Amino acid sequence: MPGTVVIGSQFGDEGKGKVTDFYAENANLVVRFQGGNNAGHTVVVDGEVLKFHLLPSGVAQEKRILIGAGVVLDPRVLKKELEELRAKGKKFELGIDPRTHIIMPWHNLLDEGREESRGKTKIGTTKRGIGPCYADKAERLGIRFEDLVDKNRLAERIGAIFPVKLAILEKVYGLKVPFDEDSVLKEYSKLGAEFAQMLCDVSLEVCTTIDKKEILFEGAQGTFLDNDFGTYPFVTSSHPISGGVSIGIGMPLNKIQRIIGIVKAYTTRVGFGPFPTEQENEIGKHLVEKGNEFGTTTGRKRRVGWLDLPMMKTSMRLNGFTELAITKLDVLSGLEKVKVCTGYDVGSKKIDLFPYSNKGLENAKPIYREFNGFKVTGKEKKYSDLDKNARAYLEFIEKEIAAPIKLVSIGPGREETILK
Length: 420
Hints:
The protein is of the alpha/beta class. It has helices at 16-24, 75-87, 105-117, 130-138, 145-148, 151-172, 181-195, 202-209, 244-249, 282-291, 309-319, 358-362, 388-401; strands spanning 3-8, 29-32, 41-45, 48-52, 64-67, 72-73, 93-96, 101-102, 215-218, 256-264, 267-269, 303-305, 307-308, 323-327, 337-346, 349-351, 364-372, 405-409, 417-419. It has 2 domains: 3-88 and 202-419, Adenylosuccinate Synthetase, subunit A, domain 3 (Adenylosuccinate Synthetase, Chain A, domain 3, Alpha-Beta Complex); 101-198, Adenylosuccinate Synthetase, subunit A, domain 2. Strands 7-5-2-9-1-10-14-18-19 form a 9-stranded mixed sheet, with helices on both faces. Strands 13, 15, 16 and 17 form a 4-stranded mixed sheet that branches. Strands 3-4 form a two-stranded antiparallel ribbon.
């Protein structure tokens, strides 16, 4: 059976949690392939709000869930998340790859120190330790899940790494470090013992079952926060594009045949970085308030703007979407006019693709196409029930991106979903 991957096509916060939850009903496994707890997914089931930061959204469907090697995992956050779900009566099986890197207390402080040292060039990190953990992974200074669950190996790794990190924190960033080697070992060895039974070769399980079972892969963030192809340096530290699945899980590319691009009906962004269609006006206020555009993890207000089709065409090129899922169409309901960016004026040139450089983006002036507004009640059950102006808007998007729309979300609830 071909694997299915859910990909954020914009700057993240497209509604991947809800879409993953919807498609997870027919999946046997739901697998997280990258990112950390610096992003969150929100799922609403029968009026109950569930928020995830590390666990795949498939946990809401009580499926077997796996965390792959491409994730960086904070065991303190995982413990809290598991406790909250168990308190709500959720049952699930969790497997964690031994190669998954672990966020240590010094990663949080390094994140804070680096961000503050940037001054006016801050990138808007959530200070959850994600970037420093990925940096240590690349420098071969990381601690992996296989180390966390073995107290002797954990002690050896902490003993080798902690003095180096302590010196950097104190002498480079001038920070007071509120923990020592012994306290970290004590806290993390306890967490390791608690999670030891979850150790699972995720790569092996996925590769040996994907021809027999339905597997749904889920990432965090969005395409234009990719460490290579996003708006660098205002990006995340991993690869949320479809190609990241193969690396983050450890599986062949040809096992993924269904790539669902999640497209918010407008555009949002958290933190700093270029945003050509941003609306800092009454339109923006409408989108923030009606869309409840505040981060699941940080609570930060998101920046908002019109849908950007050059961005979407570039996202299509990078990911190869086989279909689209449009989210938050209901948020546009009630606006007299709805705009879509179809290209940019960049100096004397007109372009219809997302510039590869921030300089190009900063100089890009959006060219808009205007659509008549529409009403969405949230009670529509079929695509034909949607306002004709809403359908015209969707069909224009479908044509421009050159991928079929298969799902339209008209509200936060699982039941507020239309299959096209």
